[in-house]
Amino acid sequence: MSANKAARVGEEIWKGRIDKVNAELVTLTYGTIVAQLCKDFEADYVEVNKQLDRMGYNIGLRLIEDYLAKSNTMRRCSNFRETADMIAKVGFKIFLNITPTVTNWTSDSKQFSLVFEENPLADFVELPDDGRAQDELWYSNIFCGVLRGALEMVQMQVEAHFISDVLRGNDTTEMRVSLIRYIDDELPPEDD
Amino acid sequence: MSYYFAIVGTQDNLLFEHEFGTSKQGGDGQPRFSEQARHMNQFIVHSSLDIVEEVQWGGGQMYLKCVDKFFNNYVSCFVTGGNVKFLLLHQPTTPVPTASTRSSTSIGANPTSPQTEEAIKNFMLEVYENWVKTIMSPFYRVNMEVSSPVFRQRVAAAGRKYL
Questions:
Q1: Measured between CB atoms, which of A28, A35, A126 is closest to B148?
Q2: CATH number at residue A44
Q3: Spans in chain B with pLDDT lower than 70
Q4: Chain B partners within 8 Å of A123 (Cβ)
Protein backbone atom coordinates (compact mmCIF):
# COMPACT_ATOMS: atom_id res chain seq x y z
CA MET A 1 0.00 0.00 0.00
CA SER A 2 1.47 3.36 -0.92
CA ALA A 3 2.00 6.07 1.64
CA ASN A 4 -0.78 8.20 0.18
CA LYS A 5 -3.20 5.38 0.18
CA ALA A 6 -2.32 4.56 3.78
CA ALA A 7 -3.03 8.15 4.74
CA ARG A 8 -6.42 7.96 3.05
CA VAL A 9 -7.26 4.69 4.74
CA GLY A 10 -6.29 6.10 8.12
CA GLU A 11 -8.38 9.21 7.59
CA GLU A 12 -11.36 7.20 6.48
CA ILE A 13 -11.27 4.84 9.45
CA TRP A 14 -10.77 7.71 11.88
CA LYS A 15 -13.81 9.51 10.51
CA GLY A 16 -16.06 6.53 10.31
CA ARG A 17 -15.53 3.77 12.75
CA ILE A 18 -13.73 5.09 15.79
CA ASP A 19 -15.23 6.01 19.11
CA LYS A 20 -13.70 9.24 20.33
CA VAL A 21 -12.91 10.37 23.82
CA ASN A 22 -11.94 13.76 25.13
CA ALA A 23 -8.25 14.38 24.50
CA GLU A 24 -7.74 15.85 27.94
CA LEU A 25 -9.02 12.67 29.51
CA VAL A 26 -6.23 10.79 27.78
CA THR A 27 -3.63 13.43 28.54
CA LEU A 28 -4.48 13.67 32.20
CA THR A 29 -4.81 9.93 32.72
CA TYR A 30 -1.48 9.22 31.13
CA GLY A 31 0.08 12.11 33.01
CA THR A 32 -1.15 10.71 36.28
CA ILE A 33 0.33 7.32 35.47
CA VAL A 34 3.74 8.78 34.73
CA ALA A 35 3.67 11.05 37.77
CA GLN A 36 2.64 8.14 39.98
CA LEU A 37 5.40 5.95 38.59
CA CYS A 38 7.92 8.69 39.28
CA LYS A 39 6.64 8.80 42.84
CA ASP A 40 6.56 5.05 43.32
CA PHE A 41 10.07 4.57 42.03
CA GLU A 42 11.31 7.60 43.92
CA ALA A 43 12.31 9.48 40.80
CA ASP A 44 14.39 6.63 39.42
CA TYR A 45 13.64 7.72 35.87
CA VAL A 46 15.51 4.90 34.21
CA GLU A 47 13.20 2.49 35.96
CA VAL A 48 10.16 4.63 35.08
CA ASN A 49 11.14 4.45 31.41
CA LYS A 50 11.38 0.71 31.71
CA GLN A 51 7.98 0.42 33.35
CA LEU A 52 6.34 2.62 30.73
CA ASP A 53 7.89 0.52 28.01
CA ARG A 54 6.63 -2.64 29.65
CA MET A 55 3.11 -1.24 30.01
CA GLY A 56 3.20 -0.26 26.37
CA TYR A 57 4.43 -3.69 25.39
CA ASN A 58 1.47 -5.31 27.09
CA ILE A 59 -0.87 -2.88 25.38
CA GLY A 60 0.77 -3.49 22.01
CA LEU A 61 0.44 -7.26 22.23
CA ARG A 62 -3.32 -6.87 22.38
CA LEU A 63 -3.75 -3.63 20.47
CA ILE A 64 -2.50 -5.17 17.24
CA GLU A 65 -5.65 -7.30 17.12
CA ASP A 66 -7.80 -4.21 17.43
CA TYR A 67 -5.71 -2.45 14.80
CA LEU A 68 -6.07 -5.30 12.33
CA ALA A 69 -9.79 -5.52 12.93
CA LYS A 70 -10.34 -1.79 12.48
CA SER A 71 -8.01 -1.27 9.57
CA ASN A 72 -9.22 -4.37 7.82
CA THR A 73 -5.87 -4.90 6.15
CA MET A 74 -5.41 -8.60 6.57
CA ARG A 75 -2.43 -8.58 4.32
CA ARG A 76 1.20 -8.52 5.20
CA CYS A 77 3.21 -5.42 4.48
CA SER A 78 5.56 -6.21 1.66
CA ASN A 79 8.53 -4.53 3.31
CA PHE A 80 9.55 -2.61 6.37
CA ARG A 81 9.02 0.74 4.66
CA GLU A 82 5.40 -0.10 4.12
CA THR A 83 5.15 -1.18 7.74
CA ALA A 84 6.47 2.21 8.82
CA ASP A 85 3.88 4.03 6.71
CA MET A 86 1.10 1.90 8.08
CA ILE A 87 2.20 2.54 11.65
CA ALA A 88 2.38 6.28 11.15
CA LYS A 89 -0.55 6.90 8.84
CA VAL A 90 -3.00 4.26 9.96
CA GLY A 91 -2.01 3.09 13.42
CA PHE A 92 -1.28 6.43 15.05
CA LYS A 93 -4.07 8.02 13.08
CA ILE A 94 -6.84 5.74 14.22
CA PHE A 95 -5.82 5.53 17.85
CA LEU A 96 -4.60 9.04 18.50
CA ASN A 97 -5.52 11.10 15.43
CA ILE A 98 -1.92 12.07 14.85
CA THR A 99 0.35 11.24 11.94
CA PRO A 100 4.00 11.25 12.87
CA THR A 101 6.40 11.77 10.00
CA VAL A 102 8.41 8.78 8.84
CA THR A 103 11.93 9.89 8.05
CA ASN A 104 15.67 9.31 8.41
CA TRP A 105 15.77 5.86 6.86
CA THR A 106 19.06 4.04 6.90
CA SER A 107 20.20 2.76 3.53
CA ASP A 108 19.38 -0.83 4.40
CA SER A 109 15.77 0.18 5.15
CA LYS A 110 15.89 -1.33 8.58
CA GLN A 111 15.83 1.79 10.71
CA PHE A 112 13.63 4.84 10.59
CA SER A 113 12.53 7.72 12.76
CA LEU A 114 9.05 8.79 13.69
CA VAL A 115 8.93 12.53 14.24
CA PHE A 116 5.97 13.65 16.31
CA GLU A 117 4.82 17.15 15.49
CA GLU A 118 2.08 16.81 18.04
CA ASN A 119 1.82 14.46 20.94
CA PRO A 120 -1.47 14.28 22.78
CA LEU A 121 0.18 12.56 25.73
CA ALA A 122 2.45 15.50 26.40
CA ASP A 123 0.03 18.44 26.37
CA PHE A 124 0.49 20.74 29.39
CA VAL A 125 3.42 18.66 30.60
CA GLU A 126 6.48 20.19 32.14
CA LEU A 127 9.05 17.76 33.41
CA PRO A 128 10.02 18.03 37.08
CA ASP A 129 12.90 20.47 37.47
CA ASP A 130 15.01 18.28 39.71
CA GLY A 131 17.89 18.46 37.27
CA ARG A 132 17.61 14.82 36.24
CA ALA A 133 14.20 14.35 34.68
CA GLN A 134 15.25 16.50 31.74
CA ASP A 135 18.09 14.10 31.01
CA GLU A 136 16.67 10.78 32.05
CA LEU A 137 12.91 10.59 31.68
CA TRP A 138 11.37 9.71 28.33
CA TYR A 139 7.90 10.90 29.09
CA SER A 140 6.12 9.21 26.18
CA ASN A 141 8.09 5.99 26.41
CA ILE A 142 4.89 3.97 26.41
CA PHE A 143 4.80 4.42 22.62
CA CYS A 144 8.04 2.44 22.25
CA GLY A 145 6.56 -0.47 24.12
CA VAL A 146 3.35 -0.36 22.12
CA LEU A 147 5.23 -0.58 18.83
CA ARG A 148 7.49 -3.32 20.09
CA GLY A 149 4.57 -5.38 21.37
CA ALA A 150 2.35 -4.86 18.36
CA LEU A 151 5.03 -5.64 15.80
CA GLU A 152 6.15 -8.70 17.69
CA MET A 153 2.69 -10.16 17.20
CA VAL A 154 3.04 -9.79 13.46
CA GLN A 155 6.43 -11.47 13.32
CA MET A 156 8.68 -8.47 13.55
CA GLN A 157 11.15 -8.04 16.31
CA VAL A 158 11.94 -4.35 16.64
CA GLU A 159 13.74 -2.10 19.01
CA ALA A 160 12.31 1.36 19.62
CA HIS A 161 13.52 4.24 21.70
CA PHE A 162 13.19 8.00 21.82
CA ILE A 163 16.20 10.06 20.84
CA SER A 164 14.74 13.52 21.44
CA ASP A 165 11.72 15.08 23.07
CA VAL A 166 10.41 18.64 23.03
CA LEU A 167 9.69 18.26 26.73
CA ARG A 168 13.42 18.06 27.28
CA GLY A 169 13.94 21.22 25.30
CA ASN A 170 14.83 19.51 22.02
CA ASP A 171 13.44 20.91 18.80
CA THR A 172 11.56 17.76 17.87
CA THR A 173 10.15 14.63 19.41
CA GLU A 174 11.76 11.76 17.58
CA MET A 175 11.58 8.03 18.04
CA ARG A 176 14.02 5.63 16.43
CA VAL A 177 12.67 2.26 15.35
CA SER A 178 14.99 -0.53 14.19
CA LEU A 179 14.02 -3.85 12.73
CA ILE A 180 16.06 -6.59 14.34
CA ARG A 181 14.64 -9.55 12.48
CA TYR A 182 11.55 -11.12 11.07
CA ILE A 183 10.52 -13.84 13.45
CA ASP A 184 10.17 -17.10 11.57
CA ASP A 185 7.12 -19.13 12.25
CA GLU A 186 8.19 -21.59 14.80
CA LEU A 187 7.28 -25.16 14.19
CA PRO A 188 5.52 -26.92 16.98
CA PRO A 189 7.75 -29.32 18.80
CA GLU A 190 7.69 -32.60 17.00
CA ASP A 191 6.10 -35.56 18.57
CA ASP A 192 8.30 -38.53 18.49
CA MET B 1 5.33 52.33 37.53
CA SER B 2 6.68 49.31 39.34
CA TYR B 3 4.78 46.09 39.72
CA TYR B 4 4.92 43.22 42.13
CA PHE B 5 2.82 40.24 41.14
CA ALA B 6 2.03 37.44 43.55
CA ILE B 7 -0.10 34.32 43.36
CA VAL B 8 -1.55 33.17 46.65
CA GLY B 9 -2.91 29.66 47.08
CA THR B 10 -6.01 28.46 48.84
CA GLN B 11 -4.26 28.29 52.19
CA ASP B 12 -2.94 31.83 51.89
CA ASN B 13 0.41 30.42 50.87
CA LEU B 14 2.56 32.16 48.34
CA LEU B 15 2.85 30.16 45.11
CA PHE B 16 4.60 32.54 42.80
CA GLU B 17 6.01 36.05 42.80
CA HIS B 18 7.44 38.24 40.13
CA GLU B 19 8.60 41.85 40.04
CA PHE B 20 8.64 43.95 36.94
CA GLY B 21 8.33 47.50 35.75
CA THR B 22 6.23 49.21 33.16
CA SER B 23 7.05 48.80 29.49
CA LYS B 24 4.62 51.46 28.34
CA GLN B 25 5.70 55.00 27.53
CA GLY B 26 9.29 54.03 27.05
CA GLY B 27 9.58 52.13 30.31
CA ASP B 28 12.42 49.62 30.42
CA GLY B 29 10.47 46.91 32.24
CA GLN B 30 12.62 47.18 35.34
CA PRO B 31 10.99 47.54 38.76
CA ARG B 32 11.93 50.66 40.70
CA PHE B 33 11.07 49.62 44.21
CA SER B 34 13.34 51.00 46.87
CA GLU B 35 15.22 48.39 48.81
CA GLN B 36 12.99 48.97 51.83
CA ALA B 37 9.79 48.82 49.85
CA ARG B 38 10.66 45.46 48.39
CA HIS B 39 10.44 43.84 51.78
CA MET B 40 7.16 45.58 52.38
CA ASN B 41 5.55 44.37 49.17
CA GLN B 42 4.79 40.92 50.47
CA PHE B 43 3.23 42.34 53.60
CA ILE B 44 1.12 44.83 51.71
CA VAL B 45 -0.11 42.21 49.31
CA HIS B 46 -0.92 39.73 52.03
CA SER B 47 -2.64 42.30 54.19
CA SER B 48 -5.02 43.01 51.33
CA LEU B 49 -6.19 39.39 51.43
CA ASP B 50 -8.70 40.26 54.13
CA ILE B 51 -10.36 42.76 51.85
CA VAL B 52 -10.21 40.35 48.97
CA GLU B 53 -12.06 37.77 51.02
CA GLU B 54 -14.70 40.30 51.88
CA VAL B 55 -15.40 41.34 48.32
CA GLN B 56 -14.73 38.15 46.41
CA TRP B 57 -18.23 36.73 46.91
CA GLY B 58 -19.97 40.01 46.19
CA GLY B 59 -20.21 40.54 42.49
CA GLY B 60 -19.57 37.13 41.06
CA GLN B 61 -16.67 38.60 39.15
CA MET B 62 -13.22 37.10 38.96
CA TYR B 63 -11.52 40.42 38.41
CA LEU B 64 -11.99 42.51 41.53
CA LYS B 65 -10.16 45.58 40.25
CA CYS B 66 -8.26 47.68 42.74
CA VAL B 67 -9.09 46.32 46.18
CA ASP B 68 -6.62 48.03 48.46
CA LYS B 69 -4.39 51.03 48.76
CA PHE B 70 -1.49 51.51 51.12
CA PHE B 71 0.15 54.93 50.77
CA ASN B 72 1.38 54.92 47.21
CA ASN B 73 0.79 51.21 46.64
CA TYR B 74 -2.30 49.93 44.88
CA VAL B 75 -3.35 46.30 44.95
CA SER B 76 -5.51 44.77 42.23
CA CYS B 77 -6.86 41.28 42.52
CA PHE B 78 -8.13 38.46 40.34
CA VAL B 79 -9.64 35.36 41.91
CA THR B 80 -9.60 32.11 39.93
CA GLY B 81 -12.37 29.56 40.03
CA GLY B 82 -10.29 27.47 42.39
CA ASN B 83 -9.95 30.32 44.89
CA VAL B 84 -6.35 31.07 44.00
CA LYS B 85 -5.69 34.79 44.15
CA PHE B 86 -3.62 36.75 41.69
CA LEU B 87 -2.52 39.95 43.36
CA LEU B 88 -0.84 42.77 41.55
CA LEU B 89 0.73 45.57 43.54
CA HIS B 90 1.35 48.63 41.42
CA GLN B 91 3.32 51.60 42.56
CA PRO B 92 3.33 54.74 40.44
CA THR B 93 6.74 56.38 40.17
CA THR B 94 5.40 59.65 41.47
CA PRO B 95 2.67 59.67 44.09
CA VAL B 96 -0.73 60.47 42.71
CA PRO B 97 -2.02 63.75 44.06
CA THR B 98 -5.10 62.90 46.06
CA ALA B 99 -7.10 65.88 44.88
CA SER B 100 -6.14 65.61 41.25
CA THR B 101 -8.39 67.58 38.98
CA ARG B 102 -6.86 66.33 35.81
CA SER B 103 -7.35 62.61 35.32
CA SER B 104 -4.51 61.32 33.28
CA THR B 105 -5.24 58.43 30.98
CA SER B 106 -1.77 56.95 30.99
CA ILE B 107 -1.55 53.60 32.72
CA GLY B 108 1.53 54.62 34.60
CA ALA B 109 0.27 57.83 36.08
CA ASN B 110 -3.21 56.99 37.25
CA PRO B 111 -3.58 53.62 38.98
CA THR B 112 -7.34 53.72 39.32
CA SER B 113 -8.36 54.99 35.90
CA PRO B 114 -10.58 52.77 33.73
CA GLN B 115 -7.68 52.40 31.28
CA THR B 116 -5.44 51.01 33.98
CA GLU B 117 -8.18 48.71 35.18
CA GLU B 118 -8.65 47.42 31.68
CA ALA B 119 -4.93 46.89 31.14
CA ILE B 120 -4.61 44.99 34.39
CA LYS B 121 -7.66 42.94 33.52
CA ASN B 122 -6.07 41.88 30.25
CA PHE B 123 -2.86 41.06 32.05
CA MET B 124 -4.72 38.96 34.62
CA LEU B 125 -6.68 37.10 31.98
CA GLU B 126 -3.53 36.20 30.09
CA VAL B 127 -1.83 35.04 33.25
CA TYR B 128 -4.94 33.05 34.15
CA GLU B 129 -4.86 31.25 30.82
CA ASN B 130 -1.23 30.29 31.31
CA TRP B 131 -1.87 29.41 34.92
CA VAL B 132 -4.48 26.86 33.92
CA LYS B 133 -2.06 25.27 31.48
CA THR B 134 0.69 25.18 34.06
CA ILE B 135 -1.30 23.53 36.80
CA MET B 136 -2.58 20.95 34.33
CA SER B 137 0.91 19.50 34.27
CA PRO B 138 0.79 16.03 35.83
CA PHE B 139 3.77 16.83 38.01
CA TYR B 140 2.02 19.73 39.69
CA ARG B 141 0.13 19.26 42.95
CA VAL B 142 -2.42 21.64 44.42
CA ASN B 143 -0.93 24.52 46.39
CA MET B 144 2.59 23.63 45.29
CA GLU B 145 4.88 26.50 44.51
CA VAL B 146 5.10 27.16 40.78
CA SER B 147 8.72 27.01 39.77
CA SER B 148 8.16 26.58 36.04
CA PRO B 149 10.46 28.91 34.11
CA VAL B 150 8.04 28.78 31.20
CA PHE B 151 5.27 30.20 33.35
CA ARG B 152 7.54 32.95 34.61
CA GLN B 153 8.46 33.90 31.06
CA ARG B 154 4.82 34.07 30.12
CA VAL B 155 3.94 36.26 33.07
CA ALA B 156 6.80 38.55 32.13
CA ALA B 157 5.58 38.59 28.54
CA ALA B 158 2.05 39.46 29.64
CA GLY B 159 3.48 42.26 31.75
CA ARG B 160 5.39 43.64 28.78
CA LYS B 161 2.35 43.38 26.58
CA TYR B 162 -0.23 45.11 28.76
CA LEU B 163 1.50 47.03 31.52
A1: A126
A2: 3.30.1380.20
A3: 95-109
A4: 136
**DSSP string for residues in A88-144:** IIIIHHHHHS--PEEE---TTS-EEEEEES--GGGTT-----SSSHHHH--TTTHHH
What's the domain count of chain A? 1
Residue A19 belongs to domain spanning:
3-182
Say if A40 falls within a structural domain. Answer: yes
The answer to whether the Cβ–Cβ distance between B137 and A31 falls below 8 Å is: yes
Residue A75's CB is within 10 A of a number of other CB atoms, namely 7
Residue A187 lies inside a defined structural domain of this protein: no
ipTM: 0.76
Structural domains of chain B, ranges and CATH numbers in brackets? 2-162 (3.30.450.70)
Q: Residue A29's closest chain B neighbor by CA?
A: B138
Between residues 74 and 133 of chain B, which touch chain A (CB distance below 8 Å)?
A: 133
Residues 42-101 of A with CB under 8 A from B: none
Give the tens place of pLDDT for each residue, B28-63: 878 888 888 888 888 999 899 999 988 888 878 889
